[in-house]
Amino acid sequence: MINILIGSIAFALIAIYDWAQMRKYTWLKPLFFISGAVFYIGFTGVISTPVDINLAYWVTLGGYICFFIFTLLLIYSILVEISIHSYLNRDNEHILVETGTYALSRHPGVLWFFGAAVSMIALHPSYLTVLAAIIWTTLDVLLVWIEDRYIFPKSIPGYEKYKTTVPFLLPDKKSIRHCLKTLKPKPLSTCKLSKTMCPSHRETPETRNRQTTSMEENIR
Predict the structure, then answer these.
(1) What distances in angstroms separate CA 21 from CA 56, 120, 134, one per listed residue?
(2) Radius of gyration of the chain from Cα atoms?
(3) Are residues 105 and 163 both part of a single domain?
(4) Partner of 88 at 20 to 30 A CA spacing, among 18, 38, 56, 129?
(5) 3-state DSSP call for residue 171?
(6) Alpha-carbon distance 179 to 100, whole Å?
(7) pLDDT tens-digit profile of 149-184?
(8) What pTM, to 2 d.p., does this model score?
(9) Quick one: pLDDT at residue 210?
(10) Which of these, 111, 102, 68, 64, lies nearest to 83 by C-alpha position?
């Protein structure tokens, strides 16, 4: 039971991290990674307990496969799509992402976490694992509800409009189509880096000459 409590503390740390982002307390940014480490400790403790529910071999095998898939999706949505940019943001503000899995749902991480929690029961069938999955999933839903209602509208520009176009948790047909469409890589012309950083926008002597010639022709 202590391991479930340790894992639960991670959700409280994430809530504090979100509050710190809203208040611009940059010194609390490491809480995001600390929460991940704390949850990992609780998770490994839970799946280290004895198995006391008998399941078929193919169910356990399927649990391992599904857990791996949902974990990759969770890492992609939370780390790749948002948190690396948010963590490195000098203005200490959340960044609104409306494409990819965040076109599918405003909180796709909850979907992947739920899938991983169910898979955890299959790969390590025990009553403690079932209890951990229920408690952690409930805390995850509660966390995103707080974020969606009280934190993100104040810390993410444009979030209120985003709420009107993308479902809270469960995807619909429109959000699924938009997700699949925006998962495609964007061309270099849409690069948002500054002109001094992006090679496609970097000014060269040739481009300066072309701009000068164009200006002279316009004057004539």
Answers:
(1) 46, 31, 28
(2) 22
(3) yes
(4) 38
(5) coil
(6) 5
(7) 999 998 888 999 999 999 999 999 999 999 999 886
(8) 0.78
(9) 52
(10) 102
Q: Is residue 99 part of a domain?
A: yes
Burial 95-121 (b: 16+ CB within 10 A, else e): eebeebbbbbbbbbbbbbbbbbbbbbb
Number of domains in the chain: 2
Residues 6+ apart with CB under 8 A from 129: 46, 47, 49, 120, 121
CB 169 within 8 A of CB 148: no
CA dihedral over 199, 205, 210, 215, signed as positive or negative: positive
- Across the chain, mean pLDDT equals 83
**Closest Cα partner for 139 from 49, 14, 41, 1?**
14
Regarding whether 139 and 120 lie in a shared domain, the answer is yes
Q: What tokens appear for 79 in the block?
A: 């780390």
Whether residue 199 sits in one domain with residue 109? no
What burial class does residue 161 get, using C-beta atoms within 10 Å of its C-beta: 0-12 exposed, 13-18 middle, 19+ buried? exposed
Nearest to 143 by CA among 4, 20, 3, 17: 17
Could you list the residue range(s) of the whole structural domain that residue 162 is in? 52-184
